[in-house]
């Protein structure tokens, strides 16, 4: 165990093993939602084999899925055997949970592509951990209808199924209706648990809190079909406290793990802009920093919130995990320059190219009025609005607040400057000499 963990941080593992049990760490990191286990401390006494399923309805996982992977990693670090499942068959049907109307059935080729993408991302996040990756299409694609109904379907009672909130809402008087295909989703997921119980000895399923009902289908099926006990532990969904919406694939503004969908710059910026209320809990969920390290970061953060140490630490750690050290160091240099903590003139051509892709950029001579510069960069919509911003002290040149009327030669650093409206990077622009 120590040899395997050496590659994922021996120092962390030794600290972890010496000071926190599995149940303690799960609770400290704020993961636990519901469980069939009466006493959570029993997780510390018997290392089980667990499985956790990942949906492949999109061609990338999101930061919501990343939270689930970090949940899995805690169990693995504590000696649990992991079976990580990508839903090749269940993604073809679609989970009705959380949906007000029927999903459009996805293309099989698209789902196959999504499965490959999910496997790549899971492997990247799980680097250094030991786990088995499976696809439920492998054991469901050749199922025969009559044997499935007789051997599996007979163990499911309709009464508790139709009483589940997401089903009851869809088939109620004002619901959009529910097809048998989506209704069968929970039975397929229950069958996954039974199959993995038989093949790998899985006796614990992990899942998001929105999967509680589906997870119970497997628990009940194993009890009825095999006369054995199985359990479930669900984790809290990560909610954007600013919007009240979960981090999911179908939500507007989803933050993807795939760089072609959410660029590395956007990914880094997302974490850098986390609000003060959420950043402490996100450090626990999305990083493997230990209790002392997070405690130290938060102590310094509380003393000098304007320095945003907690957000910078979070952005660095999560971006490094998903996109690698070279990429996160590049983003850190870019952001440092955009904030004026270093010179924009020090960025290399590759880094400047990234800035041009991510923020408005224009070519302007050095004596142009700042009002004109604000309009040409899109930071103001009119002359009057630009003048109001300047008069209110909301204009920054290279992170220095200014009320002057013109850009000056001294503002340009290696032929470039950063113009900003307000205090956030969202309203920044790159100005270069022609």
Descriptors for this entry?
434 residues, alpha/beta, 21 helices, six-stranded mixed sheet, disordered N terminus, single chain, Structural Genomics Hypothetical 15.5 Kd Protein In mrcA-pckA Intergenic Region, Chain A
Structure explained in plain terms:
With 434 residues, the protein is of the alpha/beta class. The protein has two domains: 2-240, HUPs (Rossmann fold), CATH 3.40.50.620; 349-434, Structural Genomics Hypothetical 15.5 Kd Protein In mrcA-pckA Intergenic Region, Chain A, CATH 3.10.290. Helices cover 47% and strands 12% of the residues. It contains 21 helices and 13 strands. It has helices spanning 2-6, 10-19, 22-28, 63-77, 90-93, 108-125, 137-140, 145-151, 158-163, 165-171, 180-183, 185-200, 212-226, 264-272, 276-286, 291-303, 309-323, 325-338, 349-358, 370-376, 383-391, and strands at residues 32-35, 49-54, 81-86, 132-135, 204-208, 231-235, 239-240, 245-246, 361-363, 395-397, 400-401, 416-421, 428-432. The strands form three sheets. The chain has a six-stranded mixed sheet with strand order 1-6-5-2-3-4, sandwiched between helices. The protein has a five-stranded mixed sheet with strand order 9-13-12-10-11, with helices on one face. A two-stranded antiparallel ribbon has the order 7-8. α15 (276-286) packs parallel to α17 and α18 packs across α19. The protein is elongated, with a radius of gyration of 26 Å.
Architecture (CATH level 2) name of the largest domain: 3-Layer(aba) Sandwich
Percent helix, as a range, is 40-55%
Strand content: 5-15%
- What is the averaged pLDDT score? 90
Q: End-to-end distance, in Å?
A: 59 Å
């Amino acid at each position: 165990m120590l040899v395997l963990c050496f590659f994922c941080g021996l120092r962390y593992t030794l600290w972890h093993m010496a000071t926190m049990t599995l149940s303690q760490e799960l609770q400290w990191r704020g993961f636990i939602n519901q469980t069939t286990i009466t006493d959570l401390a029993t997780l510390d006494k018997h290392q089980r084999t667990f499985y956790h399923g990942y949906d492949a309805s999109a061609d990338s996982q999101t930061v919501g899925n990343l939270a689930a992977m970090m949940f899995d990693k805690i169990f693995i670090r504590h000696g649990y055997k992991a079976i990580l499942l990508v839903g090749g068959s269940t993604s073809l049907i679609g989970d009705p949970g959380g949906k007000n109307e029927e999903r459009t059935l996805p293309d099989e080729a698209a789902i196959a592509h999504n499965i490959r993408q999910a496997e790549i991302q899971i492997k990247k996040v799980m680097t250094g951990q030991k786990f088995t990756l499976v696809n439920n299409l492998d054991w469901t694609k050749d199922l025969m209808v009559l044997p499935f109904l007789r051997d599996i379907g007979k163990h499911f009672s309709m009464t508790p199924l139709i009483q589940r909130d997401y089903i009851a809402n869809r088939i109620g008087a004002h619901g959009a209706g529910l097809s048998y295909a989506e209704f069968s989703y929970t039975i397929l997921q229950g069958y996954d648990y039974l199959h993995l119980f038989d093949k790998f000895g899985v006796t614990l399923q992990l899942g998001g809190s929105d999967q509680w009902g589906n997870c119970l289908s497997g628990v009940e099926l194993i009890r009825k079909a095999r006369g054995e006990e199985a359990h479930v532990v669900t984790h809290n969904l990560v909610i954007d406290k600013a919007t009240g919406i979960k981090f999911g694939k179908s939500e507007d503004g989803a933050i993807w793990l795939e760089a072609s969908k959410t660029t590395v710059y956007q990914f880094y910026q997302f974490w850098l802009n986390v609000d003060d209320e959420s950043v402490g809990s996100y450090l626990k969920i999305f990083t493997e920093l230990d209790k002392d390290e997070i405690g130290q970061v938060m102590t310094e953060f509380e003393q000098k919130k304007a320095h945003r140490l907690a957000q910078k630490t979070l952005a660095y750690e999560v971006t490094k995990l998903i996109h690698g050290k070279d990429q996160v160091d590049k983003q850190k240099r870019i952001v440092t320059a955009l904030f004026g903590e270093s010179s924009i003139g020090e960025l290399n051509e590759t880094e400047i190219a990234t800035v041009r892709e991510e923020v408005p950029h224009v070519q302007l001579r050095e004596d142009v009025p700042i009002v004109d510069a604000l309009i040409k960069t899109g930071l103001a919509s009119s002359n009057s609005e630009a003048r109001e911003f300047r008069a209110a002290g909301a204009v920054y040149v290279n992170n220095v607040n200014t009320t002057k009327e013109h850009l000056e030669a001294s503002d340009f650093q290696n032929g470039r400057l950063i113009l900003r409206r307000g205090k956030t990077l969202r309203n920044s622009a790159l100005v270069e000499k022609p």
